[in-house]
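ok so I'm stuck.
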Amino acid sequence: MQIEPIQHEPPYRVGLFIGSLASDSINRLLATALMRLSPPEFEFHEIVYRELPLYSRDYDADYPQTARDFKASIQASDALLFVTPEYNRSLPGPLKNAIDWASRPWGQNALTGRPSAVIGASTGAIGTAVAQQSLRSILSFCNAPQMNSPEAYLQLKPGLIEPDGEVTVESTREFLTMFMGRFLEFTTRVLTVLPRPD
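replied:
not stuck anymore, here's the structure
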């Protein structure tokens, strides 16, 4: 008996997490570039988490509306793209808090099964490598399938990305284009389901 895969057809709605709350964040600039270089099969919307209070299980019995809206934004996404800086050799606290909200109450994890990719920029040479490892560990526990390769740790020097998202260095532009193309391939694979035979 031949089993035909069921494929979620594009466009794929990608929820964008920007790890910095700063208005002039270089990671927001990187996110603008990634959207500009993205395959047309992706449609982006930012998942906003600035207004979330600090998570406590005391909220589990009655989630506040801001948290309900936040989780609904994740659940409306086919895939997730995390673009984050590195704070003190880890991910920023507000982003970790947002993931905690997304994963609770127990058994209602909004991240489960959503293909994800992680990338980040810093002014330093290690380009958020340690933060990304911390984030990957958390996403693994939250059962969000991750694109493991290519890894992308970007040292963002002044002038590399223009305010409109134009990448001025050809090799960087080619790499980021390839990264987003691979993310499309990964998302397509994850969202392709093989039905169980009767």
